[in-house]
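Objective 1.3, modelling of assemblies. Example input:
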Amino acid sequence: MVRFKNRWFLVEFIPIPSDTKILSTPPIPLSRSSTEPIQLNLDGKAIYSALKQSVLSNYGDVGWGAVGLSLSVKYFSPTTNVCIIRVGRDQHKIVWGALTLLNGIESAKFIPNVVHVSGTMKHVQLAAIAHNRTVIARYRAMADAFGKIFS
Amino acid sequence: MKRALENAQPSANFKERKKRKLADARTIAVQSQTTTSAVAGTSRSGPTVDNTMKRLPGAIDVEKFAEARSFEINAMKSAMETASSASTTRAWQILPRHLRRRAASHNPRRVPLRLRDKARAEMDPMRRKTLGRAMPKLGKQKRLPKEVIFMRRQRDKRWLETHIWHAKRMKMENMWGYRLAVTPTEKAFRPSHRASMRGSILHDASYLSLVEMKGPQATLKAILEICCDAQDISPGAKRYTSGARVCKTHIYEPNCYPLGLICPITVMWKSKPSFPSQPLDETSKSKKGKGKDKQPIPSPEASNNTRILWIYFHPSVFDVVFSILRTSTSQILEAAGREGTIVDVELADIRGELGIFEIMGPKSNQVLRGALSPVMAEASADFKKFWASLGNIQSCGSVPGGMIVGFPVNDPRLRFPPKNAKVQLPPGSNVSPPIGVFPSAGLAACSIWEQNVRNQLKKPRYETKHINERRSKNLIPGTPLNPLRQDDRIPVMLIQTSVQPSTSNNAESIEGWTFIFPAGWSMAFFQQLTYTGTRIAGQRERKTQAFEAGTAYFPSDYPATSAYQTYALARAKGEMAKWTRTPPAKRANYKKLGTRSPWIPDWKVVLGWKEMPDELLTDEEDAEDVDMQGLVTTQREPESPVPAVADPVVDDDPPVRIWLLRGVEVSSIISQLSEVLVPGQSLLSTVNRLRAKRFLEPLEGTVKHEDLLKSALILVRITICSKGSSSDLSLVYSIPDAELQEWRKGLTKAGVDPIPAEVEFVTLPDIVPAPNSIIGYITTGGFSLSRGEGSAIGAIALIRLFELQQQAQSRFRLSHYVKSDKTLFVKVRDRKGHQCRLARIHVLQN
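Predicted structure (tokens):
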């Protein structure tokens, strides 16, 4: 029995503020005041088209021909910039490479950070939950640390 | 054409709907941006020390970040749950297995109320349309009433009172004139075993045959002593005649001990609180009077010497046992008649008068305590003490063995559903206190023995619907009903039972209670007990309980009885038919394997009363093949020129019937016999001594002691030393000395005390044993869950047992090994396989 196997990517798009120079350490988002949120104005479709362009330019028509049938963006959240992308298993390296080489869409610049790759949607969802929990924990620890300094 | 189109449309709609539903279930919710003003921020962030002073981190920001992330977490979780449940589970699959009903997929009424809408939605819409009849079905009045229909189905078999409950959940079979449950339909082998070890498990045993005997105590005692086991304590002993305990013994043909074993029986005397005022005569011959033949004339109530006793036993041998009792009775009455005494003995068949449940397992005490509500008003102090401590004991082993407790209970339906009692240990200790009450006639007194009481209770005073109406009138819903004066009070009896190899307690025994109540109340008590979480056992579970406890189970482990013959023949027929139906490539080739009797154990050949059949070479093709290829057969038996003709010299029936040496004193008898040079003589004298104990004459002079010894079988327990388990009808071989050395070398190499799973022999299992070294067969074998290794119960020839013991003795003397014990070793070969396994053998105390 031939099974079509997939790979699911959990990607987070880390936004780069437009006025920042390329630093050695990534910038702190908290350095901005809350009145100016970093919005990427992204959409599932926008990501798909950006990814397509990236594959076409880096891997050519051959690359897109291999990948195009199975590629799809399953989930994207504008608030957390977390995205779940599905590709076929034999072509996932192409998409991974194209994703890494993607550095922005039109005006918005970002760094894609692939958090997890797996064969089922369920494990990607579990990884997303775990990732969110570590982020929350990190923020909390940071807030505690700051609080202690100022108290 | 038109209909096809009609059908096509709803199914297309249905498919679309299902797809949409599935897609909905799979999408993950996204938090809309407009609701939150702040952004979650990125994950890659680390504090840099030099910037901390300039920027103020807001605590509010962290919370908003956390909120956005947590929304995502929840969305992911719910998406996972809905996705899996939307595609794979139906409404009835959400229910646990024991609440699922057949036909729930197309009949939503079989599903609990809360899931009914869901089930209805999941149904095929075409089917739903046909089921939802707007017009009611007519002709319901013309139908025959249910009772008539059910009675028609019971012409050739009888149903138990709990039949319908069992029929919905268990595989049923016709056995011994009843329709009985064999095993539950759901997978229940391990859960039932766990329930008998740690929980509680119930078996409806109302099919057991009951016989009532009435008469003077001494006469009844004499009647029983003629036919019961001579090694056991007599059923007329003082501890039993007071009615405080039951007597578990075996019944033989009258005057034939030890040759005509029939079955195990249980004897219960009606309690006589004012004991022992009557003189207990040792012999019936001292009575004076004329003996009358048994007539159903009730003995005068005024006589204070009339006792009643009940005997219950397996239904497959009812006719035999009843006729034995009749013969014994007439024999005793004749003897009394010769003296001139007037003696009246009444023998009655009371099958169907009582319901019997067997509840085994440690939790059975709490279950019974919670399910039954005894009438405390007239209860004795002893009983109150007993009832108070019943809920606290953690195993029935702490109750004196065979103890009978009789008491009236209120209608069980009043306090439905029941709550299990909780064990309350005394403070500061882990062990529950012992029961604190000794068996006594007063404790065992119960009005269930009276026929008129039972007759009154055959029909309950209030039907279930009346009781439900009463319950609905309760002011506070859910409170149990208080028993009224008109409510029934049902006399019941609890008897402590245990499944164990001998009278002494051991760790493997399974203890429980036998619960006896008048007929007509089976369903009421059954429902009460089932709602406590007790599992229900069928015949297979009952057999497994006996196997795990290491005891013989009637009829499958009693090789010398006629009931066993019937059972074995029926099984052989079924298996042979199945084997013949199977194509040769898919079934075991018994000829090639050298299994000379794969269907039924040939005890006569094993004991030497019959020549070994040369069937292995009667098949012409096989013989020619072998000869033509010039190969030597691996079978070492002598090739006789005239096969399969009965030798006229050797009889079909041995001079002494094949008999089973069993009883409480078996191990001491065997050790005594093994020291003697001529064990046959000693065996005969032992048998005569036991017979004299019961005032039977010694066995007739025609019985030669060699024949008696040669016809004896003995039950053994076989434990495999290496991994693997043996199944039923496996062959047991004795091992020649030289080979045994090799086996033991392999065994000790594995370690001092090897775990069976780790022991492996490489070449020894392939050695083909000589067919004349078969010493017996295994009657019940398998993997024992409680021991974690293969275990079996079988029977071997007594002479061969002595040979094994001599082998062990000589080994003991010449042993080179430090750890030399006197265990007896044998080889066991599955009838379908060719590999032999080393096994240890112990004599089974039964």
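The helical segments of chain A are 44-67, 92-100, 121-150.
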